[in-house]
Amino acid sequence: MVLKNVTIFIDNNGNHKAIKSYSFENKTSKNDKERNTVITIGIVNVICQIGVYFCLLKFEQNSLIIGITGFIITCLSLIIFYYGYYKKFKRYKYTNIIYIIFQLILVILIVLRMSQYICYSTIHKIYYLDIKDPLNNINENYFSKGMDKSSTILLRCCCGIIFIIVWILGLKNSYYLYNETTQLVKKRSNIKKLNKMKTEPIQVGTQKANWNQPCIY
């Protein structure tokens, strides 16, 4: 870590004194960059969620309620995420973790349900098995014995998988932002501690220097 604005003062008596003034990075540009990153991640993930919804909406009986519920969860977690990086309150970085957790829950639920669709369209079609939905919410027009519309289901699931991959990449960038924020907070905390340190002059010449006092050159 490079520390800037460190001045060494030597008075007429030959006394050395380190005058510290460690500057922070440009907080305004850094904050704008973080907020723009949060907005970009949020927009990409919302678009991906809407894309997944339109790919799979015909497969569930209560697809509208499911879609609205997921959208509300995403919006609330995104608001918390953005608010944390906008206000920069203490431990604001954990709003990022909250967002990631809620989004991962949605992704896992969608992937599990999509795996069920693919299983019905392949194994149940090949062996001509009866279809029994544990949630009793599947659209029987698409999922019936024999799976006449299996090709449509598989095509929609493939499109949904593409949206999910982009969605996960957005969450990956969100995690990178969390790590970057953690390092930045740690760095600023160290600089604050260094700026609070008191330095005293070190005598040179015939006098003995007090090496127990911190002095940074």
Automatic annotation (TrEMBL):
What are the TM regions of this chain, as residue ranges?
Answer: 37-59, 65-85, 97-118, 153-171
Keyword annotations of the record: Membrane, Transmembrane, Transmembrane helix
What is the protein named?
Answer: Transmembrane protein
Lineage, top ranks: Eukaryota, Metazoa, Ecdysozoa, Nematoda, Chromadorea
